[in-house]
Each structure stands twice: as C-alpha cells, then as structure tokens.
Amino acid sequence: MEQTSGQKRYSLFGGDESWQAQDWTDSDDRVRGGKSQSYLECSDEIGRFYGTLDIKTLGGAGFASQRTTGEDREWDLSDYAGIEICVAKGDKKRYTFILKDKLLPPDPENGREQASISYECDFELPPQTKPGPAHERFVFIPWSSFNATYRGRLKKDAKPINLKKVKRMSIMMRSFFGAQEGDFSLSMRSISALAKAPPPGDEIPIAMHQDALEKGQAIPQSTGIGDAEWYSGRQDFYELVRRRRMYLLLGATAVMALFIFMRRSCQMYPFASLIRLFNKSSYVPRATLVEA
C-alpha cells in the first residue's frame, strides 16, 4: 500500500506490485463450445488484456475473460471505497470488472467449477480529443456500482459483497447482445483500491450504477459537455441494438403463436378442412360452363 497525493492506495496488480503472468488464467466461452480467446500479457509496468471475441459460434453471445489464480487467495478491501483501473492504452469497447467473495469446490460429477455469485460492473474508457486508441485514462468503480449476478442473471436479493474476504477478481470482454465482437486490447498500468472516491474536480471518471443492459453497466462520468455528447451517442447505439433484438424476438413469438393456432385448428376441425378443400377443387367457374 502507498500514500499518493494524500490518497490511501492499495496496489493490487501493477503499480507497486509488478504484473505476474502466474496471477492470471483464462476463462473464456470455450467451456461452453465457443471460440473466443483471451490473454493477459505481463511486464513489470503493464498488464495487457487482449484477444478475440467470437459471437457467431454461440449465436450472438460470447465472452472472453482473465481471472486471478489460486483458490486460497484473499484480499481485505473493507477500508477502501472502490477500484481504480489505470489504463496506459485501450480501445473504445466496453469491459467488465468482476469480484467474488465465495468460491465453491469443483462439481464431483464433471470436475467443473460450480457457479457462485459474482459482483460485476461494466465500464468504458472516457473520451479524448485525439482520434484513435485512448491513452493514459483512469476509471474508478465504487462498491455501489457492482451488481450481483448468478449464472448470468441479475440477483437483486443477493447479500452485499463481503469486502473483507474478496476471493477472486476478473476482467471480461462480452458481446452485450451482439453489440461488439472481434479483437480487443486493454493495456493497464495498475488495478488498485482507493480509500476515497476521487473528488468531482479530478480527471478520474466515476463508474455509476445504471439499469442493466446485460448484467449491469458502468458509465464514465464527466463534467465536460463533449464527453456527455460522446456517451449519449454510445448509449443510443446500445439502446438501438437492444430494441432491434426485442422486436425480432416479438416477431418470432407472434409467428410461432400463429403457427400453433393454425395447427390446433386443423386438428380440432379436420372434416371442415376437408370440405373446404373439396369445394375448392370441385368449383368450376361459370364462364367455363357457358363456353362448354
């Protein structure tokens, strides 16, 4: 831990603690038959989370993530206000940071890890005036912005996370209902816990809890008008994707309901259907009879 500019800081990865490859392992959708792949490339100063997100194999879904290793690791973050991610360079995609305070033993039948509650928050890097990848950006995620989920669904009745015993941390790239795919890259200088949220005048954006798009979202907040317009456009894009998929689902449901109704009608009134078919086949237009 260190004191920086009057702010108590707990360096979790990077910063005072150099990045170590053995601290991380992949957890991608390949366990479900997908083809996404993630990596975490480590140097003393940078941990680069990168890979490829494939959404075609699983029909629009997909995820690629790196999680901390070790079943007996534990972090006490109860004296801190949230997580700060310092990014040296990153793309403009949306990422998810995940915490767990409980790990279950592997399933005795198949050997796979059993599901437990996760606490997640999505974030994007704040905008910059220069085009291209973002450089030297910070994101702060307060504990209140983490959403409890279980097996991919929000769990509103879950207990708050036990910050005294955080067992695992993960960083994830996911599709958000097909809104993003392909290559991704996020080069992080550090992941730290801060004792206090940055004051409003700081350049560090604060990720705030909002209604969930997939499993909850975090929005970099800024006082700049240009930043607000930038995020408004991103939000409109995700809303458009969500509405399009909702309309497609409603249309498919209506077609299926009509098909079931017609099928049941034919089963209930088979003779009426045969009579209609017979009348149609035996009908001869009057003009044809006159000509004959």
UniProtKB/TrEMBL annotation:
Transmembrane stretches, start-end: 246-262
Superkingdom of the organism of origin: Eukaryota
Family in the record: Belongs to the CIA30 family.
GO process annotations (BP): NADH dehydrogenase complex assembly
SUPFAM superfamilies: Galactose-binding domain-like (SSF49785)
Gene Ontology MF terms in the entry: unfolded protein binding
Keywords annotated in UniProt: Membrane, Transmembrane, Transmembrane helix
Stretches assigned to the NADH:ubiquinone oxidoreductase intermediate-associated protein domain: 20-187
Protein name as it appears in the record: NADH:ubiquinone oxidoreductase intermediate-associated protein 30 domain-containing protein
